[in-house]
Design the sequence.
């Protein structure tokens, strides 16, 4: 009788544990639909300062504490970066990316994901990071072949001033 | 809140009572959730140390070493990996069910706020431990976890550069990342263990080890499940691809799909609201507490039985402050006392046979004294009639709490000193006594059922005297939702008592109210 009871207890425990084991990797979760890929627009880039540096006069320099004397006075705040992304001629993203940081002197950042059907796509990305009112400082247009489940990253390299598709 | 609690309790009753019958109350896994949580923690720790021997913290070698563990060395390291994962999952299950069960039992308010409150960081640390573990495997699931976790963290305005950028293209991740994750995966569980210790600090006799039979069966079941369904990786991480269609661990990662459906901000809002709700629940609304037990030093010799029996660590022994010739005296910490009365039942001075003007004992409840208990017993007994006069001593949280007429209700049945049973039967106040408490595996005051059974079995001081006829005592352990079963058992017992021959046990003392007696007769010590 004791053996039967122990067997019953063991069966219940095994059944509970088996349920837990099953739920440890099932059911599966799909981030994106079948037959699609992802284009990720992401970069970190600091635009120009909001204003031009101004040369201090000798009187102004003399007024500063000796350990803080400098020749130029440059505003800390950076401009916002304006960015646009077109996919197959259609604008899918336009944003003015504010600088980060409490004083607004950090780089602007973007991290945007676009799920697209697998296949050929025309991508055009444009960026304005200076004081100009219209037009763009950097841009790239390209055709890409997006495979299912592929992650295509559009990055911007400030050192070369160019966009990279990878 | 009351309605939710009642619905939950009813749900637990449906599972607990069959489990009580199958496992016995002492082995019922639902009454061992905390202990099983600790048990699975140790399995995770030991298996983790074993796996670390084989694990390599390189960007490519991490996955390969886990594959070597799971495939080439499946018969030991692979089994250990399965133990590691499934015991971790079981720990989440234990924590979740433990939380719901304690809530359903109203074990989270009053002095119990501390254990409830410290359970919250346990949940957070448990999840951080598990999630960092999944990163280490560096398979498709790890990539998914890394990506979603970092996107969640990036939503907070903490990091200058999005850390998720490290997981979307090859060449950005270095082996140092795995060293960092290993450090976190070791440090966070260590901190978790520390908080688990804090969690049980205010509990007397915390159960941190399950009964041996249950532990052995759990180990055997883990082994069986590990062989049947070994924990495996889901293909190497490929940063050029979206980690799509991954098999999620739904115990650790149930919120990850929600980041897609709700957005990261909503998931953070949910986590914040959940944490805030858990943290504030003990005071929504606060539990009304009766006044704490008080010590009467004239009747306390510092025997320590009350301190031994208190389930809440509310009583301790301190050096004597009066001139009586005993080294210690009991002291009650009012902030920890729930006024359950278990200490009253444990005090050797708590004997209703004492013949003083005002019945006194070494430790008593200001709002429900031993004197009042004796008076209620005598008043209730006076109303009993017929051949099978049965008096019910009921716990206010158990099935018999709502009975009228022949029932005396108290905060916990362990408040009734064994000498009270002797008193009732020897003074012919009743022909039989039913002690009706909570369900055996769900005692509201944790140890009331256990102490009562041990006192009646003469295994724990104060004993029930040998002269008390055991066949005239029945113990009914049933929750408030099992009132009909309790009624049936009480009725059956009353029938048995009615069929018994008259009692031979008689006290030489009269039934009338106690009056002042000469000093030598003032107490009938040793009644228990």
Sequence:
């Amino acid at each position: 009788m004791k053996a039967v009871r122990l067997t019953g207890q063991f069966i219940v425990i095994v059944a509970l544990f088996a349920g837990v084991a099953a739920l440890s990797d099932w059911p599966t979760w799909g981030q994106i639909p079948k037959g699609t890929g992802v284009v990720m627009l992401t970069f970190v880039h600091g635009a120009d300062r909001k204003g031009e540096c101004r040369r201090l006069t000798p009187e102004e320099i003399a007024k500063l504490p000796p350990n803080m004397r400098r020749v130029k006075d440059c505003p800390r705040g950076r401009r916002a970066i304006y960015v646009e992304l077109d996919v197959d001629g259609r604008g899918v993203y336009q944003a003015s990316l504010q600088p980060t940081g409490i004083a607004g002197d950090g780089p602007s950042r973007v991290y945007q994901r676009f799920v697209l059907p697998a296949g050929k796509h025309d991508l055009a990305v444009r960026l304005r990071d200076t004081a100009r009112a219209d037009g763009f400082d950097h841009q790239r247009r390209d055709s890409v072949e997006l495979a299912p489940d592929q992650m295509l990253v559009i990055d911007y390299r400030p050192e070369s001033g160019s966009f990279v598709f990878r | 809140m009351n309605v939710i609690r009642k619905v939950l309790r009813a749900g637990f009753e449906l599972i607990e009572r069959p489990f009580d019958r199958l496992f016995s109350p002492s082995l019922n896994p639902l009454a061992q959730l905390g202990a099983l949580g600790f048990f699975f923690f140790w399995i995770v720790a030991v298996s983790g140390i074993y796996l670390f021997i084989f694990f390599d913290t390189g960007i490519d070698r991490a996955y390969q070493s886990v594959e070597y563990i799971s495939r080439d060395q499946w018969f030991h390291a692979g089994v250990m990996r399965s133990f590691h994962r499934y015991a971790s999952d079981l720990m989440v299950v234990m924590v979740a069910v433990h939380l719901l069960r304690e809530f359903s039992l109203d074990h989270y308010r009053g002095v119990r706020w501390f254990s409830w409150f410290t359970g919250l960081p346990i949940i957070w640390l448990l999840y951080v431990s598990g999630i960092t573990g999944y990163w280490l495997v560096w398979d498709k699931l790890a990539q998914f976890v890394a990506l979603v976790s970092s996107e969640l963290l990036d939503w907070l305005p903490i990091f200058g550069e999005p850390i998720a950028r490290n997981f979307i293209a090859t060449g950005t991740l270095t082996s140092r990342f795995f060293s960092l994750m290993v450090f976190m995966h070791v440090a966070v569980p260590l901190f978790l263990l520390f908080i688990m210790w804090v969690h049980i600090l205010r509990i007397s006799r915390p159960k941190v080890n399950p009964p041996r039979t249950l532990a052995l069966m759990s180990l055997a079941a883990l082994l069986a499940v590990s062989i049947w369904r070994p924990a495996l990786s889901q293909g190497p991480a490929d940063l050029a691809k979206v980690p799509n269609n991954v098999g999620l661990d739904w115990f650790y990662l149930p919120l990850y799909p929600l980041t897609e459906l709700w957005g990261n901000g909503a998931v953070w809002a949910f986590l914040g609201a959940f944490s805030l709700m858990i943290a504030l629940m003990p005071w929504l609304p606060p539990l009304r507490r009766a006044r704490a037990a008080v010590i009467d030093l004239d009747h306390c010799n510092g025997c320590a039985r009350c301190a031994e029996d208190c389930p809440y660590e509310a009583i301790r022994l301190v050096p004597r402050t009066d001139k009586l010739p005993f080294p210690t005296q009991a002291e009650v910490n009012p902030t920890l006392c729930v006024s359950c009365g278990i200490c009253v039942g444990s005090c050797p001075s708590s004997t209703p046979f004492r013949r003083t003007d005002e019945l006194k004992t070494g430790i008593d409840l200001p709002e429900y004294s031993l004197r009042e208990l004796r008076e209620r017993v005598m008043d209730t007994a006076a109303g009993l009639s017929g051949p099978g006069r049965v008096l019910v001593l009921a716990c206010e949280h158990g099935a018999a709490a709502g009975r009228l007429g022949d029932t005396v209700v108290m905060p916990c049945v362990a408040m009734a000193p064994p000498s009270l049973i002797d008193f009732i039967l020897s003074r012919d106040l009743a022909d039989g006594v039913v002690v009706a408490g909570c369900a055996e595996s769900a005692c509201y005051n944790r140890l009331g059922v256990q102490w009562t059974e041990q006192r009646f079995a003469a295994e724990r001081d104060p004993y029930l005297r040998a002269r008390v006829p055991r066949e005239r005592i029945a113990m009914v352990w049933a929750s408030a939702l099992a009132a009909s079963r309790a009624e049936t058992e009480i009725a059956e017992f009353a029938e048995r008592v009615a069929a018994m021959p008259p009692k031979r046990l008689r006290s030489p003392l009269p039934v009338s109210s106690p009056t002042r007696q000469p000093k030598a007769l003032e107490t009938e010590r040793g009644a228990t």
